[in-house]
Amino acid sequence: xxxxxxxxxxxxxxxxxxxxxxxxxxxxxxxxxxxxxxxxxxxxxxxxxxxxxxxxxxxxxxxxxxxxxxxxxxxxxxxxxx
Length: 82
Hints:
about 80 residues; mainly alpha; 3 helices
């Protein structure tokens, strides 16, 4: 019974097996999705992933623009008030 209390727990193991990834094929598939070409090999997951990536870039750019505008506004207010 005392042995169970002081027993050291081992971490869980994660057995990840990587899959084959062809960069050229992925680039061709990406270009077809961006050009809205219909292809039987392009599945919904690829199209969804590309749209999410494009939306993420748009959000990052709009956030940068907002931060730049706020910084310019802060500098102008500082100059006007001092």
